[in-house]
Design brief:
six-stranded mixed β-sheet, 16 helices, seven-stranded mixed β-sheet, alpha/beta, about 525 residues, about 20% strand
Length: about 525
């Protein structure tokens, strides 16, 4: 609450300060007026954020006591400065818990680091658990691991049935321990913090980097005979060194591409093709090491096995998503094959796009053979509802918007642009994006226009207009699938970092008017 103000004292103090400091001085009367306006009921929210920034920017050191002023004025200024200081703290705490900050991963890391270094309290977004602290996102959990609780890390996969992003203090973990973190479950990223405040983000390519470091240690030389893992036999050592060098060379050549494909979860065949060679070398390495006493090289064998298992897990996940995309494409073309799914019998009356979206959703549910995948319709998201949402164990992995373009519609470009707006809004507002894994984004256009060239031009115009509206870079290109336009969405989300998504615009042609039995028209003889 605002304290009992005495504006005559404030004016006296400001007059004396202005004589000395001139334009560099912010009158305390003005500062207190701004602070007081933040406590009015109801508050005037239009300029609240601007006023809060002003209070935060105040240098309270300028309001010092003066020997030329009466004690009553100096005592009052002490109370006023204390009040302004408390206001600054209150605004900082409020901004920490402001809902937008919940989805700012970098901000949360800074809060945690500040808590470690300066022993400041964590915002109430953080929740304590067995391994440290975590913040629960809609599609993953951001876990800040306590290095004193390493013996409990195995519980992570049981505590969270979703993707994990881990944040650790790098000084407290060895390379082997960091590599082991990737085996605790679906770890999409590990964030390293140093005591000095430097933060590094490591995603899939870090898996290859850390593995290469471990493999370099297998290149034992004679000088390493004091190492517990030293291979005594010259023949075995030469085999291991040659295999390791070949493996590292192969990883270094393909690491970047493989990492990118891992990050965006596409083209699993490409990944599998290049990783198959890495697997074969790893298997040969393990065979070589098994040829000697197992216990002497168990650590190296376990490291290799973890690396292979992690790669297999990622490939299986991507294959599962690709299989799901194939199911989506099959179901959407079932609808035009049976006109009674979208048209009343013996009538030209057409169903509304909500009805067609419902039919599409039911077809997907019926054809789905995966128990961990389910589909919802008209689920509330952000400021609207999603036509069809795809869930993987309650985690959103796909958003589908459905639009119906009737013949004669003059505003087709506007309808398509609105569909893109809704799709982008559902995606961006709710922060479904997992930085290292893709999400299925589709805009399905059911249309009655037989002129495909005109329709594609309309779609292209809508894409260009949408790009100008949301200020996100789009690039469209053809795909191998019929009547599908794929858009690559590139969005800067933090400094020089870019988020990439792919939106598929699927065009499905429907019959425009009712036709009698086609077999009767072809003069088939009845038996």
């Amino acid at each position: 609450m605002i304290f009992d103000r005495k504006k005559d004292i404030e004016e006296t103090y400001d007059s004396s300060k202005l004589l000395c400091n001139g334009y560099n001085y912010t009158p305390i009367l003005y500062a207190l007026n701004i602070a007081e306006s933040l406590h009015k009921t109801p508050p005037n929210g239009r300029y609240t954020s601007r006023r809060e920034r002003f209070i935060l920017s105040l240098d309270l050191k300028q309001y010092s006591q003066s020997s030329s002023l009466p004690d009553a004025v100096n005592d009052y200024i002490i109370i006023a400065v204390k009040f302004l200081s408390e206001e600054q703290v209150s605004i900082k705490n409020k901004s920490r818990n402001y809902f937008v900050k919940l989805y700012d991963q970098n901000y949360l890391v800074e809060c945690y680091h500040d808590s470690l270094v300066n022993n400041t309290p964590l915002p109430n977004l953080f929740t304590r658990f067995a391994c440290g602290w975590f913040v629960d996102f809609p599609d993953y959990a951001l876990c800040f691991l306590d290095s004193t609780l390493k013996n409990k890390y195995e519980e992570l996969s049981n505590l969270f049935k979703k993707n994990l992003v881990l944040c650790i203090l790098s000084e407290d973990f060895s390379d082997e321990e960091i590599l082991k973190l990737y085996t605790l479950g679906p770890i999409s990223k590990v964030i390293w913090m140093s005591g000095s405040g430097h933060v590094s983000h490591y995603s899939c390519t870090a898996l290859f980097d850390l593995f290469c470091r471990n493999m370099y240690r297998l290149e034992w030389s004679v000088k390493n005979n004091h190492n517990a893992s030293f291979i005594i036999e010259d023949e075995l050592r030469s085999k291991v060194v040659s295999r390791v060098k070949l493996l590292i060379k192969k990883i270094e050549l393909k690491k970047y591409n493989i990492g990118i494909y891992f990050d965006y979860g596409i083209k699993s065949d490409y990944i599998d093709y290049h990783l198959s060679y890495l697997r074969s070398i790893c298997e040969q390495l393990m065979n070589d090491l098994f040829s000697d006493a197992f216990h002497e090289h168990s650590s190296a064998i376990e490291t290799i096995q973890r690396f292979v298992d992690n790669c297999n897990y990622r490939i299986d996940t991507i294959n599962g998503l690709n299989s799901l995309v194939n199911d989506l494409n099959k179901c959407v073309y079932v609808i035009p094959q049976n006109k009674y799914l979208y048209k009343i019998e013996h009538s030209n009356t057409l169903f509304h796009e909500t009805n067609i979206a419902g039919i599409y959703k039911e077809l997907l549910s019926i054809s789905n053979k995966k128990p961990y995948i389910n589909f919802t319709q008209e689920e509330l998201n952000g400021n609207g509802r999603t036509d069809i949402q795809i869930k993987h164990n309650k985690e959103t992995i796909g958003i589908i918007e459905v639009k119906l373009l009737k013949r004669g519609d003059e505003n087709r470009t506007e309808v398509i642009r609105k569909g893109l707006d809704q799709l982008y809004e559902r995606y961006s507002q709710n922060h479904y994006r997992r930085i290292e894994n893709n999400i299925i984004l589709q805009l399905v256009l059911f249309c009655y226009d037989p002129n495909m060239t005109n329709l594609i031009n309309t779609v292209t115009n809508a894409i260009e207009e949408h790009e100008r509206r949301v200020k996100v870079k789009f690039s469209a290109y053809d795909t191998s699938r019929r009547n599908v336009i794929r858009i690559k969405l590139e969005e800067s989300y933090y400094l020089l970092k870019t988020r990439v998504e792919y939106i598929d615009i699927i065009i499905v042609k429907l019959e425009n008017k009712y036709n009698n039995d086609r077999l009767a028209k072809k003069n088939y003889k009845k038996s």
